[in-house]
Structures are given as structure tokens and as C-alpha cells.
Amino acid sequence: MSTRKINSVMKEIGLAIMGTLMFSYWGMNAQQYEANWESLDQRPVAGWFEDAKFGIFIHWGPYSVPAWSPKGTYSEWYQYWLQSKALFGNGNFKGDEVYQFHKKTYGDHFDYYEFADEFTADLYDPEEWAQLFEDSGAKYIVLTSKHHDGFTLWPNEEANDRGFAWNSMETGAKRDLAGELSNAVKKTDVKMGFYYSLYEWYHPWWQNDKERFVKEHFHPQFKDLVEKYQPDLLWGDGEWDMEYEKWKTPELMAWLFNESSVKDKVVINDRWGKGIRQKHGGYFTTEYEAGKTFSKPWEECRGMGFSFGYNQNEDASDYNSTRTLLLMLIDIVSNGGNLLLDIGPDARGSIPPIMQQRLLEMGDWLKVNGEAIYGTRKWKTPIQWSAGDRKLDKSTHYLGGDYILKQTVDPAPGKAVKEVFFTNKGNNLYAITPKYPEDQLIIKGIKPSKKTKVELLGYKEQLSYEYQNGNLVIQVPNLTYDELPCQHAWSFKISEMK
Fold first, then answer.
1. pTM
2. Where is this site: May be important for catalysis (predicted)?
3. Residues 6+ apart with CB under 8 A from 268
4. Which uninterrupted H or E stretch holds 220?
5. Exposed e or buried b per residue across 186-221, where buried means at least 16 C-beta atoms within 10 angstroms of its C-beta
């Protein structure tokens, strides 16, 4: 057979194989989902999400203008605190603190809706934001496209059905803030997501005609967001006041998965109706919690301080240290979850320097230790504990970040500590220690194979080890502070595990 004939045959075979693969691909993605959770829950969460491990939450809106609430509360709830004269969070409150602050600062007759004109975003540079997110080591971001006050960060018709302009294109900034960030982020390897609040505290339809609110406001507005920006992730919230049947979220999710422009790629969370968190939807969510683990992808969200929106009332001492944030990330990842860490830009579009510093320092650590974080899965024994009481003491509404310090480097008398966190990738086990071990690292119940090698990520030489009494005993190099590959936590790679 001639060379030309062979090439022709091979080309035909290649096209046939490609056709079969394409048919298989489109057949797999052509599944139609019904408008019920039994069907919708069968849709798998895209693999990139479980591999990502670290995301950045961004709360930004008119509440970023006053940017104030008592310590231990959410400043993005400013409108609700103001009008209800009620507060909840960490602390003892009279309830009218925000009202009194507002009255003193802006006067009796300054309405919350007037903050839209002062939400100027004149220092907002989405390209700089995107670069910061990439440098932080985050693999996805979630921007508040609309919080519970109903203000949208994109030009949207439904946002104005109160009877006045209530979006970033027609007020204050006069810019499509969501669209600009989406465009900038999509130039990087970071995935783009949007937070979207189902309900709005003071929308007249929500208060007086919820059926109309769902049909004429919520559903068309949600679809507009999806089709305009084609996000990788949608983060629902504000669902807790009404059952999913009344929200008609199964119908909306069926549209999202069957008809929308992101039907084959979008990831969703579990906040789509009263009582369905950690039961239905995509991945499961927790908020200011610890110690949770699930049999499917999940995510813990929290702020660097206590507030999600920027709170000028918080001091440096209210922000978790880089060490705390990294130990929190490691703890969550060892249990199979992601950390969605929030930042709150100010009204002009500046990300506070302390927040930038935390993100960049986390990025530096991840450059060395990312192999032990990204793409890993939960090990059969996620954590090696010392002896003692493992109970987590919680006395506040929101669990502060210092919980992880008490469980690792600063325990109370009689309390157990997490000596080693484990993650797993293929035949490799990663052992991450909150403290740099002195001389030896003893890992209990681990048996190496004949091919096993041990490394300290960021350190060039292999480490020697022995298998003694059912434990792996690793000889740890004695390094000075400047010789250490990173600060805060250290990752030991144990390859070719049995």
C-alpha cells in the first residue's frame, strides 16, 4: 500500500474515532434535568471546583460607603440594621447602634438609597484586582453581583423596578462593575463566579407580593446575569425566608442546566430555598463553622475579620493573621473542603492594604506548598491528633479564626492538638505540620512501600526515614529561619504509598 493510501486510511480512522468521541461527549452533556431535586442532584459538580481549594469572596456595594457596624457583625447588613434597629452577631448590643451612627454621621433624613450616588468606585481597577487574585493563589472568585439590599453591580432592568435607578451603571460609579471584573478575571487562570441574593429586604414586591417578586424580578434578573457574563459559578444566598417550591428554584436550575449558555460548565452551591442547605443543590456550604465534613464537595466561607463587607470599625487586631488563615485553609482542605475567604473593598474601589497583604502572603506560601493543596483529596485519616480533649469550645455566634490556633499552636491546658494534617493525591500523601518538627516527625500508622521517598516541599534534598513499630519516623533537617522554605506550616511529601 502506498504512503499516500496509508495516510488516507489513517485519516479516515482518526476522523471516525474523533466522531465517536464527540458523539460520546455531546451525548454525556446532553442529559436533560427535570425541575426537581432528585433529578438536579444527579448533576456532578465540575472537577475544577474540588481541585481549586481556595477562593476569594468579594462583598462590595452601597453598604461600602458607610462601611460601619459594631465589631462582630456584618457591615453589609447596614440597611437592615438601620431600618430594623436590631443587631445580631458576636457581642451584646442594644440594637440601635447602626441607627445612632447613621443619624450622627448623615442626619435624620439621609436615606440608605442615597448611598448609591456615593458608591463611586473611582479608584477601581479590575485588572489590578485580577492580578492580586492570581498572585494570592486563589483559583476562583465570587463577587456579590447583588446583595440583600437589591443593588446590582451590573446594568439590569429589574434592578430599577422599585421606580428608581438602583444599579452601578446609572448611579454613582456609572460603570458595569461586574462586567469589568469578569472580563479581567477571564484573562487569567482564575474562575469567575457571582454571588446572588434571592431576596431583597425592602423591595415592595418582596414585602407585599412574593409570587410577583419571583416571577417578574428574581427569575428574569438571574437569567440576565447568567447570559450577560456566563460565569463559572453561581453562589445563591438570601433563600431562608421561603421554601424552594415558592422560589421555583428547581425550575430555574433546570433552565440553567438544560438551556443556558453555561449549562455544561456552571457550578452552583446549596442555598436555593428554606431548609435545603447541605441537602440539595451543587456543593455544600458552611459559614463561620469548623469541624464539618461531607461526602461531596463543600466550602467554608468567612471574612478576614468578622464582617464580609468592609468595616472601618474593625482594627488590625480584628483581622486574622496570615498564619491563622493558612492553618484554617489547611484544616478545611484536609477535610475535603474549600476555603472561600472574603475581602471587602471600600466605596472607591480600593482593597484595604491589610487585606492585600494577607492575600499576597498566602500566595507566597502556596507557591511552595500548592502541590499539597491543589487537586488533593481527603485522606482516610485527615488529621493526626495528640492526646487530650478534642471538643471545640464555642461561646460566640460566629466562630472566630483563633479556633485553629487553639487546636494547633496555642492550646489550652488539657486540650488535644492537631499535630499533622493530611492530604492525598494519587499515590502521594502530604503531611502538613503547624509547627516545624524538632529532629523527627513521627507519623502514626503509615507504612511506606519499597519505592517511598520523603521530601520537604521547597527543600532540595530528600529526607531519610525509618519504619518503626507501625509508624513512619522522618528525620527532619535542622534549618535556620532563613533556610526554611516557607513560614507558618510545612509540607512533607511521602511518595509511592501502599
1. 0.93
2. 301
3. 233, 234, 235, 236, 253, 256, 281, 282, 283
4. helix 219-229
5. beeebbbbbbbbbbbbebebbeeebeebbeebbbeb
Measure Cα distances from 226 to 40, 180, 221 in Å. 18, 15, 9
Number of residues written out for the chain: 498
**CA-based R_g, the chain, Å:** 25
Q: What is the pLDDT of residues 379-413, one digit of tens each?
A: 999 999 999 999 988 888 899 999 999 999 999 99
pLDDT in tens, 94-114: 999 999 999 999 999 999 999
> What does the block give as the cell for 292?
464539618
Q: Burial level of 496, CB count in 10 A (0-12/13-18/19+)? A: middle
Is it the case that residue 466 has pLDDT exceeding 90? yes
Chain centre to alpha carbon of residue 475: 36
Q: Which residue has the cell 439590599?
A: 149
For the domain spanning 378-494, the CATH number is 2.60.40.1180
> Quick one: fold of 37-372?
TIM Barrel (3.20.20)
Which of these, 490, 489, 342, lies nearest to 404 by C-alpha position?
489
**CA pair distance 416, 409, nearest whole angstrom:** 11
Domain spans of the chain? 1-30, 37-372, 378-494
Q: Is the confidence at residue 28, as pLDDT, over 80?
A: no
